[in-house]
Records
---
Amino acid sequence: MAVRTRRERERAERERLIVTAARELAEDEDWDAVTTRRPAAEIEYSQPVPRSHFKGKDAITAAVAVQGCADLAAELRQARTAVRGTREALAAVAETCTSFAGHRPALYDAMFTHLVDLPFATEEAPAPLREAFGELLVVVEPIRSEGEGPDLLTETFWALLVSHFTAGRPQTP
């Protein structure tokens, strides 16, 4: 049992290292630099190691997106709880989303512009995605009209934030 637990911890640590290496490569160079081979070289493992954890680049990108959503949820929570008032909370989370995207464009791309095999807006979505959405839901719910579903309004708010950042940044050829 102890050997199995140790192996599980080691596997989880390797997976974390692969995801971190991929994220750093994407931020430093671009997502084109991320292959299953490059993160392996960065963490000093052979190329088959990432393939034993992920089916390919798309799966690595999805793992980076999940990690990014966890980071975003934490930052949104901090921004939301640092202010008082509905308008202030809306402004704080909007500014946090924009700042997050501006400081981590490759991570933001993994989360919102790359096609990743992740369920969004469902109970099957990974916890970090639900947590990030939940932070937005908390600030949007007080402004909704009676009879208006908070989920749709929150999804619209989030889509506006994503498109605001995406449309406003320079496009690469």
Note: The chain has a mean pLDDT of 87.
---
Amino acid sequence: RCSTISIDGVDLEMNEYWRAACEHAYSELGNLGERTMTFCDLRLPAKEYPIGYSFDVDEVNFPTENLRFLGLVGMSDPPKRAIPDMIKKCRSAGIKMIMVTGDNAVTAKATARAVNIISNGSETIEDIADRLGIPVESVNSSDAKACVIQGNDLHNKSPEEIDALLNNYTEIIFARISPRDKVSIAEGKYGIIAKERLRSMLCLACQRQGGIVTMTGEGTNDVPALQQASVKVVMGIAGTNTCKQAGDILLVDDNFASILTGVEQGRLLFVNLKKSIVYTMTSNIAKIMSLLICLLTTVPLAWGIITVLCIDFINITGAISLAYEKAETDIMKRPPRNPKNTRSIVVFSSILLASSFIGIIQVATGFFAYFLIMINNSYGQQWVRIYFFI
């Protein structure tokens, strides 16, 4: 849009040399992870645009061509120090991070590397092409683990193509995404796509693959995408009231690390609850099995009401202590559970373990102690007489 450039107060024609120089400076700032802003101006006729003229940026009522380029400004917005480590822990826990930003592709990739969304050693197709000195078209896409996709590239992608994109790459960044609903996707004038539509598309694509999708948001325009997510996380400080009402979890400190802490506590709660239930099941199954054995073999019952109450009290104490166990060292290194196979806390394998293995050991140990005490208290002779009499 610029036809001239201001160099040391002198207006020069914006030719290929100066365009290449501007693009080089733009790329250099982007590689540093800085967000760039371009400044330009245009002298307007005072008669057509007097003081107090109402400029409308939605329905543009002023010229936007033949501008004078003034310069570039790079703004550094470094991530918090804890974010890179949190991203690493999320990756080790099997959580796939997808970055959606309005920054340009160069800045988005630099930011993603700074926060470890693109891990060390991972390359995009463009990185491989630059390293080998070959055209991008000659690079095998399967050699790249990361990719940076611009919003306009998703304009005509089908759901199947988005699914393939999520399957082929483990580290994905979407750049040049507009945060405004008013941007017309059909026109494609600015080469951008609405962020809300993209987030909804990604959410549905991840859910089609069986994933549990967590979406974060803070503004009213994030509500449509949040409604598609399995877990809706809303910022408690910066979030709007409309967004908070649509959320499932309110992040009171607006800190990404709190999400990871919540995942860890959720896994710990699930594991401890499962331990408590299985522990309780083993004693109940052992009591049922021993009761059936006593009834079928006409052996006197091994306990009375007081004994059963004492056993239940001891079991409750053990189950409560298991519920407060600390997290195991590898709890955040395990892959996420498959929601199709773990709809209930106690699955068939746990029931089988409690009944066939632990329950049998408890019954055998209990009957061994029971008969041993009976023999030591002279009950054995009476049983022998009854046996021979029969």
Note: The chain has a mean pLDDT of 78.
